[in-house]
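Kindly review this record before class:
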Amino acid sequence: MREYDGKSVTIMSCRTCNTNCGHCYLGYEGDITSTELKDTVVKLSRHYDVDINGSEVLLNEGYFDSIKYVGQNRVLTNGIILNSNPTLIDKIKRYGIEWVCMSYHFDLHSKVSSVDFDLLKRNIELLKLKRLKIELMTTISTINYTEVLSMVNEAIKLGADCIRFTNFLKLGNAVNMNNDNLLSDEQIAIFFDQFYEAKDKYANQITARRSGTFGRDMRKENSTYYCPAGRDKVAITPDKKVYPCPFLVSKGYEIGEYYDGKILINKEFKNDGTTCLTNDIVNKNKILELKI
């Protein structure tokens, strides 16, 4: 067992949520108390870059002080609580939040999300009035991978400042969905082509980003892609288990534990960083070797 010497840590603060989306990748249970969260971020921030994530962090206002402490300027939310309690928008602004990230999956949305599209639109209007920036989090599967240009164009019309694409991952609730949603290498290549085109075409209107879950575009020799899972990035769940990636927070993928300010690693996957560890394990079913 060794002490983690990487750069960053994501604390998965809670599993409690006010909805149940079909594509949710989270596979852990439990919530961290606000007091325990503050103690954890104070200790870890001495050595690492820390951010706070979870299922629906806005359900616990006690977390806001920790979010401010680590200097986090964005929060992920399904938006339900913002719609029912708009005064919360002013409060998160006071705690340093500048970006609100909400999911919208376009043609895939009705199949995976429990959040009504009209609610999303109302939230965007409320957030824009408060001069907050909006990032749409979009899952890409075989249903919508050819529609990237039109999705970016619609995101602009909705008023989004950024759109971020994530590969469909067969984790958490998504294990119950059809394998037909999984992208092949050829389909990922088509996604990349459309992504680069949209990124250039709409550069002056919106920021288009993609998550590392697609892996490296193998056609680009000078690609700067790097998967930091387990080396420069780890995630901690409420039961103090440590995982190699915020996506790969499901039972069986533990690589260590957190104890009183220390992250102790007892298992490491062999991964050269050129492919996404999570995608390799859960979508491609690769058997990864362990470092000794």
Remarks:
- The CA atoms of residues 186 and 192 lie 10 Å apart.
